[in-house]
Amino acid sequence: MSRGLLLRFENLVQLRGACLQLRALSSRKVYGAQWKPVQLSAHPMGSLFLHPQLWPKHRLISAALSQCRHLATKEETKKKKKKVPLTRGEVEIRQKMTVEELAQAMGKDIDHIYEALLYTDVNLDSVEPDSILNEDHIKMIVQKSGMKYKSAKLKEEKERKNTDAVKRQVVNYPAVLTPRPPVVTILGHVDHGKTTLLDSLRKTQVASMEAGGITQHIGAFIVHMPSGEKITFLDTPGHAAFSAMRARGTNVTDIVILVVAAEDGVMQQTIESIQHAKNAGVPLILAINKCDKPEADPERVKKELLAHDVVCEEFGGDVQAVNISALKGENLMVLAEATVALAEMLELKADATGLVEGTIIESRKDKGKGPLTTAIIQRGTLRKGCVLVAGKTWAKVRFLFDENGKAVDSASPGIPVEIMGWKESPSAGDEILEVESEQRAQEVMAWRTYVEQQERMKKDLEVIEAKQKEHRVEYEKQQQQLAHLTWRQRKAALYKANKHLMFSRPKERAEMDENTLSLIVKGDVDGSVEAILNILDSYDCEDECKLEIVYFGMGDITENDISLAEAFNGVIFGFSVKANESIKKLADKKGIKIKLHNIIYKLIEDLKDELNSRLPPTVVETTIGQASVLDTFSVTVGKNRIPVAGCRVHKGLLDRKMKFKLIRNRDVIWKGCLSSLKHHKDDVQVIKTGMDCGLSLDKNLEFNIGDEIICYEEKEVQQTTSWDPGF
């Protein structure tokens, strides 16, 4: 031990002795003496007051404490760092404060606010940290906490300037208008040959690439006619799930070709397609397909369409009708010529100068290229480097691709093009507008985000007010029931009744109910996801099994999807997307189901099977035998009198192992097991049809002549959901 440490140790020992003497003096009750302050240099304690008998030792005490001063300083520094928040006596409040904001203003935790809300008519189950509180409730909480409140000075919010991008004014100067290709949408019922028709027109094999021969999302293509004209075709899905995509196709189109199969006639999606065309004010051309089949009846199709105000030219109307065979390529040029002729009558022209305007037909995510959109340009000429805004995102165009994936330098009005360079994926149907610079695009995004927030806040306030009004009615009823009590007794009763709500509030996400199916939906393009969500919106069997969509988006299955499914005990449904081997192994390890499909109705069938598996099994009773009570008597066993029924089996058999029920006047009196079953005096296991028997129940019940004894077996049967998605 060094000499310095030894001296410090000795001083501390002497200090301990001095403190023991002080304790001894205090125990002898030595009072009234003059206490002397001892200054301790360079020590945070400053000075000590010592008894006169300890004056000679004050130098020793001071020295010993000074040796320890560096230890005391560190401890004091730590204490200084720990700032205990002091409750302020006056709280600055304002309108539309959230629970969290009020807790911060009061210097309290959120649970304190919840506890204060127990004295109000607020429903605690609907209150979250970001819930907005009523001004009366804010004042009451502050007062209940023993504080005063003052209103914050209102900052005058300046009216925000609208910085949104808008379309240019329509200019009909012949000098700037140039002819453009017509945009033609092919509509019709599922599997009536729309994709085969388009495939024959452009001489490619799209139909063979489609899963199940069904078009899953919009394809936009240019067809070059032998005469030199161009026609832009949109191939929309005919499946019932894709109604929104068909409507979107008609909104950007000039002409609709309605495809109807000659052997099937007018079907459900045929009628819907006619309605879409009427709503958009777009002229129709009727293409009666599959005319090469023996059972084809084109005249029947034309007559059926009369009921839906589609009158062909031969019946005095203005709708051209062309009999075709898309598979064999018959009369396709006649159909194309009819389309070109109608386009010439419409005199389709557009302004190819100035800022670009267009509509997004489809959007998707590509692993290498990022967000991609298929769009139809309506005004201006799109080139690389243009800055575009659409919905809640923007893009600086990096590359443009045609329908074959070939890079192009520009796209003029009426031309479909795939755009690369988006920050996020916009929604299908969004309007594309070109702006002057990236800074201007960010201004547009800021304004649109602000408008969306204001609309969301307005809707939230409406919901909150409705819930508070509903809860206020319940609160007033409760107050009327407690009206006979004093205000103290009333508050105590109200607190006692609601206290369990505060302590049962979940701090973290509660475990999901077993009877809830959580979904993560991934699709190849925005329209596919939209169609699936539209189907899920029709789910109306919440009493059987709750359906919750945790997340939806575009692109292949990722680790984030697996994590979400694990957190919510959910299932991942993918439509026309992939999951690589590492993702599949991770899902297997965590017990997550990944269900991948390429045909939408098979995905819905799989979803219904998953819903069925979440439903509890039902117990079905199968009758094995029936017997009638012909006589009643009793036997004595020990000191107990046991009723016995004399029965005759008239259907099936009675098996003692099975369950039984006693029916009287069509009402079930008893269910259970038999305590005995006898034929004459012998205990038996089974009594067959036509035989007599005596039986007693496991419960002491009196029998009446004419009662029915039913022997039955219980089996668990898996329930099936009653949800009908419509196809």
Automatic annotation (TrEMBL):
- PROSITE patterns reported for this sequence: G_TR_2, IF2
Give the domain of life.
Eukaryota
Instruction: Give the keywords, sorted.
Output: GTP-binding, Initiation factor, Mitochondrion, Nucleotide-binding, Protein biosynthesis, Transit peptide
Q: What Gene3D superfamilies does this protein's entry cite?
A: P-loop containing nucleotide triphosphate hydrolases, Translation factors, Translation initiation factor IF- 2, domain 3
Localisation per UniProt entry: Mitochondrion
Its transmembrane ranges are none
- Entry-linked Pfam families: EF-G_D2 (PF22042), GTP_EFTU (PF00009), IF-2 (PF11987)
Pinpoint the Tr-type G domain residues: 179-349
Named from the GO MF annotations, one term is: GTPase activity
UniProt xrefs under InterPro entries: EF-G-like_DII, IF2_II, P-loop_NTPase, Small_GTP-bd, T_Tr_GTP-bd_dom, TF_IF2_bacterial-like, TIF_IF2, TIF_IF2_dom3
GO CC entries: mitochondrion
Predominant subcellular localization, coarse grouping: mitochondrion
User: Which parts form a coiled-coil structure per UniProt?
Assistant: none
Known role: One of the essential components for the initiation of protein synthesis. Protects formylmethionyl-tRNA from spontaneous hydrolysis and promotes its binding to the 30S ribosomal subunits. Also involved in the hydrolysis of GTP during the formation of the 70S ribosomal complex.
Question: Which family does the record assign?
Answer: Belongs to the TRAFAC class translation factor GTPase superfamily. Classic translation factor GTPase family. IF-2 subfamily.
**Name of the molecule in the record:** Translation initiation factor IF-2, mitochondrial
